Amino acid sequence: MDRGTIGEFGRATGLTPKALRLYDELDLVRPAEVDERSGYRYHRADQLERARLVARLRRIGMPLPRIRTRVAPPRGSSSASGGGDHGSVTAPPGLDREM
């Protein structure tokens, strides 16, 4: 997937479009592009790892505020410049052992 809709990206990550919209608002998983006319959100393949990590952390019950402190903010987030979500992913120690 070079660029996919929110639905396609959701299926690839196990996240619902509703969750992806929330994670955009929380600056956890930002769309790479938002069409100004339609509001459609598009994600890229290089965002899959981060989104899957957030999904795994939610599945094990980690609260969103804690995820925000464990997952580095995405470059290009609203707190930086422009759009897109290419931040580094920092999984908590032992996450792989828990899954």
Automatic annotation (TrEMBL):
One MF term in the entry's GO annotations: DNA-binding transcription factor activity
Keywords: DNA-binding
SMART domains in UniProt: HTH_MERR
Domain HTH merR-type: 5-73
Residue ranges, annotated region (Disordered): 65-99
Protein's UniProt name: MerR-like DNA binding protein
Organism: Blastococcus xanthinilyticus
Phylogenetic lineage: Bacteria, Bacillati, Actinomycetota, Actinomycetes, Geodermatophilales
